Amino acid sequence: MHPLLLHWKFLSLHTYGLFAALAVLAGHGFTVAWARGQGRDAAAVSDSLPALVVGGLLGARALYVLVHWGEFAGAPVDVLKIWQGGLMWHGGVIGGVTAAALHFHRRGMPVRAWADLFSPGLALGQALGRVGCFFAGCCYGRTCDLPWAVRFTDSAALAPLGIPLHPSQLYDAGWNVLLFFGLWRLARRPFWNPGRGRLAALYLALAAVGRWAVEATRGDDRGSLWGPITATQALAVFAAVTVGVWLLKRPAS
């Protein structure tokens, strides 16, 4: 793949960083437009973006560093090098949801309603982010002999070179594209209408299911928790259940 899209003198544009930016812009743009279409305050979405992005990045990176502390103990400055990969989805969910919830709560806005509105956009952003992972070679898959196996050849890629691998990143991206369209369509039905926290809880549950399935094809080391169950799988379910229950049980405001 092409981890480095552009390099000129002291300027480098990493493909991972480009897709991370596209993920934020696409998810944010969709959510603003959808909030406006729902008659909600679109400006409130824009106001919450810094909290959501910063909280999500900090949470995703913090959890990765915590789980893989052995990689950073001798070089703590590497904690800042997120363009080399190393973000955990469930940490991002916890950090982003917490930061956004605090943002809306302080302004007296209904947290569950906004969580519902953000869910399809989050799935869209996750899909684009995973494409960035694919180009960077992080979160790579196990070896396989399937017709759609991929081989990484760029020496800057984080995946093993020249070996046929599951395109695990694209599996995850595809699942999130389906989530995006599915959540968007469901939101038009009364039961799932934004405002009750149901759509957000469904997003978290299905995202965890998808992550559990994709993890079975992953080849990078994420640590084992209970036999074949990785820490990533367990944390994905824990994050989805914890935040989902919180969304469904808390008061509407």
Provide a concise account of the structure shown:
This protein has 253 residues and is mainly α.
Structure overview:
- By secondary structure, the chain is mainly α.
- It has eight helices and four strands.
- It has a two-stranded antiparallel sheet. The chain has a two-stranded antiparallel ribbon with strand order 3-4.
- Strand 1 (4-8) and strand 2 form a beta hairpin.
- The model has no long low-confidence stretch (mean pLDDT 82).
Overall average residue pLDDT:
82
Order of helices and strands: EEHHHHHHHEEH
Task: Name the helicity range.
Answer: 55-70%
Q: In this structure, how is the largest beta sheet organized?
A: 2 strands, antiparallel
Q: Radius of gyration over alpha carbons?
A: 18 Å
> Uncertain segments of ≥5 residues (pLDDT<50)?
none
Notable characteristics:
8 helices, mainly alpha, single chain, 60% helix, 253 residues, two-stranded antiparallel sheet
Task: Note the topology.
Layout: E1 4-8, E2 11-14, H1 15-37, H2 42-67, H3 69-72, H4 89-106, H5 111-136, H6 168-186, H7 198-215, E3 224-226, E4 229-230, H8 231-249
Antiparallel strand pairs: 1-2, 3-4
Helix pairs in contact: 1-2, 1-5, 2-4, 4-8, 5-6, 5-7, 6-7, 7-8
